[in-house]
Amino acid sequence: MNVKKIISTFKKKIREINSKKNYLLKKQYIPDILNSINIEVTNICNLKCKFCAYDKRDLSKVPLKTMDMNLFKNVTNQCIKLGYKNFGLTPVTGDIFMDKDVEEKIKYLENLDGLNGYYFYTNFIPIKEEKISNLFNYKKLTHLGLSIYGHDESTFIKFSKGTTNSYRILLKNLEFLYSKLKTHDYEFQIEIGHRTSKDYLLDASSSDLSLVLKKLRSLKNVVYDKNHSFNNWGGMIQENDVADLNIKFQKGLTKKNGSCSLIYSRLSIGANGVVNACACRDANFSLQIGNASNENLSNIISYNNKRYSDLIESQEKNNFPSVCESCDFYKSIYEKTFPTWAFKKKRVAYQSLNEVVDRLKKRQI
Fold first, then answer.
1. Backbone torsions φ then ψ of 140, nearest 5 degrees
2. Is the dihedral of CA 299, 302, 307, 308 positive or negative?
């Protein structure tokens, strides 16, 4: 008898019952929609991980692109005027350091009045030592996420479809980061997201990658999170894509109960300006509600925008688009969830659906 599985199943059933009760009572928990918004500085990546939708996107819908500086300034300024407080810079696919002008963008954010902070994930391979050093100069960087794939050279290559050279660069960069963290003062949080096989334990491993991860884990403001459970990217990843990785693959459909909180509190502005109602698992931007290249954000992220209001109303009736129907990353507004990884340990202000809709209606077309 698997006790952990029984307990997990029991907790899941309790959550489902509470969610259905809250749906009937119209009691919603939408994370503050102005807490953060996501801006994709680039959707280009240096890896093609087997479990990621990057390599399976429809490039006719989402061509490889880096956001130009003029659009970046325009979008960030509009977001501040709308009241957004924090920016996530790596919402869907792509590595931020594949943008050769990323430091110019970051410096712009550092001087942007009204912005509390920004955060991003990186696989830490397409970054030079000079840029690693510069991380310690940024005052508004709140969270640095390190995406680590596999636990030694062979599993790194198996998970990421990277090369031996990429693996060696990763090790070198992690060692350099460790040396800087040991000798510099810093306030930003570091989250090591380690995606690898089920049978791996960091403390039991002596691989070169494990050794440097253990050193990093021991430092201030560093959180290590090993995960062997992978989702299906709205149906874009199939079980056979990851069959040789020895992981837990989420095959079953997630039961849906009312609209997903992500379409309110985790919007994404793509590198080409397209505004999408999901910054998590819609790699083809099928939930797009406008384009910031030729429209004002106040008109796009508005209940007066029919595309957006139709999506909200449809999901509230449990009628989901195909990418949502297949998605196992769904977060019901009838359950309390944290808004995004950078805020999961902070107090979250929740709003009702009526409060959110009223706020969105005030944005006039």
1. -100, 0
2. positive
Find the range with the poorest average confidence among 24-28, 178-182, 208-212, 356-360: 24-28
With contact defined as beta carbons under 8 Å apart, do 314 and 250 qualify?
no
Q: Is residue 218 left, alpha or beta, with left meaning phi > 0 and alpha meaning psi from -120 to 50?
A: alpha
Give the end-to-end CA distance of the chain in Å, rounded to a whole number: 59
Q: Is 34 helix (H, G, I), strand (E, B) or coil?
A: coil
Q: Are 140 and 165 in contact (CB under 8 A)?
A: no
What angle is formed at CA 309 by the lines to CA 304 and CA 313, rounded to 5 degrees? 145
Smallest Cα–Cα separation from 286: which of 119, 53, 77, 120?
53
Token readout for 63 is: 């061509």
Going 299 to 37 to 29 to 237, the CA torsion angle's sign is: positive
Check pLDDT > 90 for residue 47: yes
Q: Where are the beta strands (DSSP E) in the chain?
A: 30-31, 36-39, 86-88, 117-122, 141-149, 189-195, 222-227, 229-230, 248-249, 268-269, 274-276, 288-291, 350-351
Please report the pLDDT score of residue 338 as a whole number: 67
- Classified as helix, coil or strand, 275 is strand
> Using CA atoms in the order 7, 234, 358, 89, what is the torsion angle rounded to 10 degrees?
100
Q: What is the rounded CA–CA span in Å between residue 118 and residue 105?
A: 11
Q: pLDDT value at position 4?
A: 67
Give the whole-angstrom CA distance, residue 167 versus residue 165.
5
- Sign, CA dihedral 176-101-87-290, equals negative
How far apart are the C-alpha atoms of 267 and 75, rounded to whole Å?
13
What's CA 225's distance to the chain center, in Å?
15
Return the HEC string of 149-175: ECCCHHHHHHHHCCCHHHHHHHHHHHH
Q: What is the pLDDT of residue 45?
A: 97
